[in-house]
Write a structure and sequence with these properties.
- By secondary structure, this protein is of the alpha+beta class.
- The chain folds into two domains: 237 residues, Nucleotidyltransferase, domain 5; 187 residues, 2-Layer Sandwich (Nucleotidyltransferase, domain 5), CATH 3.30.420.40.
- Helix content is 38%, strand content 20%.
- It has 18 helices and 17 strands.
- A seven-stranded mixed beta sheet has the order 13-14-12-11-15-16-17, with helices on both faces. It has a six-stranded mixed beta sheet with strand order 3-2-1-6-10-9, sandwiched between helices.
- It starts with 5 loop residues before the first strand and ends with a strand.
- Bound molecules: beta-L-fructofuranose.
- Beta-L-fructofuranose binds next to helix 10.
């Protein structure tokens, strides 16, 4: 195993921010340096919402060049990997040109299709049995169905569909491939195989020719193209490795989990993703009712999880308050104020679709409380308390469903992501779930992204080995349940 330091770069794009991180692997330790961080958001144009892909690409290149400038003289970045949020995609022609605007998954164009599928019990069951993915507004299936229905000429214009991490890999390396973990977020992959589900493609009327057979994570896509590496000597010959393209898959890979399978995972950011790893999917009517999503790991196994609405609730609510916290100290004061408040009498129904993309999150929360005859909080701390307790309850409900349907018993919840820094949320989760929460100060997605590269470069034997090394170096904080 390599003993001189190895430099690897992770491009990790989230819905509200993106970053380029330089990882240094030396003597079985990973150190991280955040090289470039930038905001991200979708923008409305007319009635729809779109990602600003050219700006994202500009930021990716800027970050990689800065990373190259920071490795010691004469050294180079061995590889780069890209992970992005799930479901969103590009449509390209044979020359690799975009032929359709890149919609954001929160755009409401899928609402009609969502309702249609929800109202057709037999089709809903069939699609779940075929793909293991429940009917959720952001699914690529519903998005592509809407694209073809609203713009039929697209079937002549587009020749292939790539998911966002695949597209950035393509811009970096010139090779267009679809990576398996991100492909599994589409509701179009065969839950029992590693290829597309023809019944699902037919149901949503998606041209099968748009989608090539997915590759497994760890595949090398060649080296960074000339135009990208120009002027940055540390990027000459840098390999582009298809890591698990789905950020959640990367975040789960970074969990320093106990090998006996008794840990439940929670990646807590804009979304709360509660789940575990398994050799088989969790299917059937009850799993569908519990919205269990059988996403896939980079190596083809399963990651049954439930997507609880997450800190999106708080991010949205903060926009409605002028006096929002701006630094760690102000955050700590706000959390302390929220902790002192009495527990809310009624928790939010976190599955309410009215919370998925409202114009004002505060108004949407107040509206739900009013409908359920509860009083709205008066100040920001009250919302923080309500949101953290409600998410804690949502996390606990997901745990209970997994234990019942998968016959597992979880002993701890491992938490990574921004939410792991929020002690109120960690404690609320431990209290509601009745088991300890172990919170790690870890950029989960970026670390999982780097892990896959290190394994592909043969600097680390496998994921279990990586997790063991990582666990030994990480600081953790345990929240014991108080009731
Ligand atoms: C998290 C995430 C979730 C996915 C959601 C929408 O960033 O990737 O896993 O369900 O975004 O794609």
């Amino acid at each position: 195993m390599a003993s001189s330091p190895l430099y690897v770069a992770a491009v990790d794009l989230g819905a509200t921010s993106g970053r380029v991180i330089l990882g240094t692997w030396s003597r079985n330790r990973l150190s991280l340096k955040e090289i470039h961080r930038f905001g991200n958001r979708f923008l409305a144009l007319g009635k729809h919402e779109y990602w600003d892909v050219p700006t994202l690409w500009h930021e990716v290149r800027t970050g990689l060049r800065e990373a190259a400038a920071q490795v010691p003289r004469g050294k180079r970045i061995a590889s780069v990997g890209v992970d992005v949020w799930g479901c969103d995609h590009v449509l390209l022609n044979d020359a690799g040109r975009l032929v359709f605007p890149v919609h954001a998954y929160r755009d409401n164009r899928t609402q009609a299709g969502l309702r249609r599928l929800a109202g057709t019990r037999a089709a809903l069951d069939r699609i779940y049995a075929a793909t293991g993915i429940p009917n959720v507004f952001y699914n690529t299936s519903l998005q592509l169905e809407e694209t073809v229905a609203s713009c039929p000429a697209i079937t002549d214009l587009a020749t292939r569909c790539l998911f966002l991490p695949d597209y950035f890999n393509y811009l970096l390396s010139g090779r267009a491939e679809v990576e398996f973990s991100v492909a599994s977020t589409t509701q179009l992959i065969d839950v029992h195989g590693v290829d597309w589900s023809l019944p699902a493609l037919n149901h949503f009327r998606i041209p099968p020719g748009w989608l090539s057979k997915p590759i497994l994570a760890g595949t090398s896509l060649g080296t960074v193209q000339k135009g990208v590496a120009e002027g940055a000597s540390a990027l000459q010959g840098t390999r582009v490795i298809a890591v698990p393209g789905h950020d959640t898959s990367c975040a789960y890979d970074a969990m320093p989990a106990s090998p006996d399978g008794t840990d439940l995972y929670l990646s807590s950011g804009t979304w709360s993703l509660v789940g575990f790893e398994s050799d088989r999917p969790v299917l059937g009517a009850e799993a569908l009712a519990a919205r269990i999503s059988n996403e896939r790991t980079g190596d083809g196994r399963y990651r049954p999880l439930t997507n609880v609405i997450g800190l999106w609730l708080l991010e949205g609510t903060l926009r409605d308050f002028a006096a929002r916290p701006k630094n760690a100290r102000e955050w700590s004061t706000l959390i302390a104020a929220a902790e002192k408040l009495p527990a809310p009498k009624l928790l939010l129904d976190v599955t309410d679709p009215a919370l998925s993309n409202p114009t004002s999150m505060r108004a949407a929360i107040d509206g739900q409380l009013k409908r359920r005859r509860a009083r709205a909080p008066r100040e920001l701390a009250g919302y923080v308390r309500l949101i953290c307790d409600s998410l804690g309850q949502g996390h606990a409900a997901a745990k209970a469903a997994f234990e019942r349907l998968a016959g597992r018993q979880f002993k701890r919840i491992l938490m990574v992501g921004g939410g792991a820094k929020n002690r109120l949320l960690c404690q609320a989760t431990a209290d509601a779930a009745g088991i300890p929460v172990v919170a790690f100060d870890l950029e989960g997605s970026a670390v999982g992204n780097l892990a896959c590269q290190l394994i592909a470069l043969r600097a680390v034997r496998d994921l279990a080995t990586f997790r063991r090394h990582l666990g030994a170096q990480l600081e953790q904080r345990t929240y014991a349940p108080r009731r």
